[in-house]
Give the backbone structure.
Amino acid sequence: MGKEIEQVFQRKFDKVNSIVDKHERKVSNLIAILQEIQTEYRYLPEEVLTYVATALGIPPATVYGVATFYTQFSMKPKGKYIIKVCDGTACHVRHSEKLRYLVREKLGLDDGKDTTDDLRFTLETVSCIGACGLAPVVTVNDDEVYGQMTPEALAIVLDQLISEEHLDGSIEEKGEKTDGFPAENEQAHESDDGKGRQRC
Amino acid sequence: MVCAGTGCLANGSLKVYEKLRELVSEKGLLIDLDMTQDACGEAHSGESTAYGIGIAKSGCHGFCQMGPLVRIEPQGILYVSVKPEDVEEIVEETLIKGRIVTHLLYHDSSQGTAVKTEDSIPFYKRQYRVVLANCGRINPEDIREAIAMGGYYAIAKVLDEMTPDQVIELVNASGLRGRGGAGFPTGRKWGFAQGAKSCRKYVICNGDEGDPGAFMDRSVMEGDPHKIIEGLMIAAYAVGADEGFIYVRAEYPVAVTRLKKAIKEAREYGLLGRNILGSDFSFDITVKEGAGAFVCGEETALISSIEGRRGMPNPRPPYPAAKGLFGKPTIINNVETLANLPSIVLKGDSWFKSHGTETSPGTKTFALAGQVVNTGLVEVPMGFPLRDLVFEVGGGTRTGRRFKAVQIGGPSGGCLAEDQLGVALDYESLRKVGAMVGSGGIVVMDEDTCMVEVARFFMQFAQNESCGKCVPCREGTKQMLALLTKITNGEGTKEDLELLEELALAVKDGALCGLGKTAPNPVLTTLKYFRSEYEAHVFEKRCPAGVCQALKSYSIDPDKCRGCTVCQQACPVGAISGERKRPHSIDAAKCIKCNTCVEKCRFGAIIKE
């Protein structure tokens, strides 16, 4: 088991290395480097941040400082589907809070918790995605944008996502999108209860 | 041309685009749009089928409410809310037979007529489009279309005929002021940077449009990226920079893709790189993505962010024009400011000054959103009356509710009541009433909006986004938020109101950067124009708009209730009881004030206080 984890780590840092190299190991590209790493792993694992700091020759505190300053970065694993409910002024006055309640209720997220335990869904509130003409707006993984949403319409969207997940929601399927992350994910589960593979 | 701005994409415009391509190519009429075919159709007015039909994606038309929009040239027909099912009819009727599909036209409800072309729709009628001129009319992913519409002519003229001094002189003479909010004269800013001695200088385009409620920069970046590139080139030439950056916020993925593509194309055409158009001027641009921090819209914070650091502002002076990016003189201009430059170069300063007011010349793009009939982008001359913008262009409030307030300039701006609607939209007039142009977001609010809650909303935003560097902003926003939350919870006292006002003024004076200094504006303006609402919350423990959860109570009017049981079934917590065909009642202890019963009741029997 230990060897496997080592390999997983090796694979992870290979990827990080290539990202850092692509940005010429320049400190001014730190934000772009972190963005690419986050796209790869869906979050910023702490050991990767330390690794980046060493690679760029800057203190880990600097990297950590940047990673915690910008809202885009997350130090906790995010779900496969990131549901963003816009709460810009226009969306706010068109009652976006109802949409937020609905997502929390549907996904069983309590206050203070933004990602479901099975790492399938993450709820985020964004301050404006610039589609104010269509307020209120909800996006799923940034590529699906739903405008002029009502709780009823959003419920249909969510139900569809949830049922899709039940149909083909196996670990292998998740593996198609990113190669580093599922390993990370399994590992987290294994350390949790030792049988993470069966959980979903 | 099918609109492919973020708004229309959300409404499914890609499906319409694909369906159009599919049907037209089935008929064997599809051609690849090429400039030799005159894709824009401006020049010829003949039957389009004679030449074949080209189908392209365009940038944002600005009329997002009615999307997806499909524009048919050369007739200039604008179809609104087009669904994939409608495509067949468009192909059969309009494209082949040249007839108009009436039910897809925009219907002017005040006149009761269908409107054929964009220019005759009330939303567009009073607009004057300079910055947005090409948005929705060209394919932003094809540099040839931008060039055909006059793109890069201005930089050619600048490189060919003008010295950097002459460019600055021209911009000074035009009176162009920064469109990012503060309204600093652009030419003067450039003069400082030009005068600074340094081996390297930088120019930056600020596309970090963080103000919630504003989306004009996004539309220009998505709809006409070449105009921004050209504007940045003119700025670079004037101040003597050879490297530029476009900083785009992370929330605008489409803008990032289109800008990168546009820059690549410009390089291929020799419009970026070494010795541009055979001159001595060399220049290249890099797109930098933000990572979600509102404060990065402030120029010194933006510089920190491009350098890869935490985006925190620095005290000025030194101004970026003297010591900016990597310690070198740097000019930062807003997207819209840069997009104005090509027209100023080509048409001259007196043309520019002929629009707008004396101190605020030119046009300004406003993003109209909220509880208003027509939402979207509006470009009007500076000094345009706010009332006309809301009621004529915007078509008044949605759902027929009474107009209550309009919020201008995002979290840095203010809320204006009906009495202030007479204000002209320019830098000075707005500052006088306590608001500001800001980036130009205008959010209309109706009587269902609680102004105290709105102030709390903005303070929550300011507090979240406060970078934490200076005490007045870091602590001040936190305390103001606590006070506002207390008031909306019905626990506020008279002292809280006084303290809130005092704090707001202290933060306004004491904060380090523009964002902190303007963060109290929503509080100050609502206190000024909607004081009675605050007082109702504090003294009467009542929310006049019925928004604040803690102050709401629901009951059923026994005279109106028919006992249909709909509310009883809809109530998620079982707080409503009653027999069929008898008036129901609400158990206040169980009620969670979710408003569901109000929405479900068909007889208006639920009383909300």
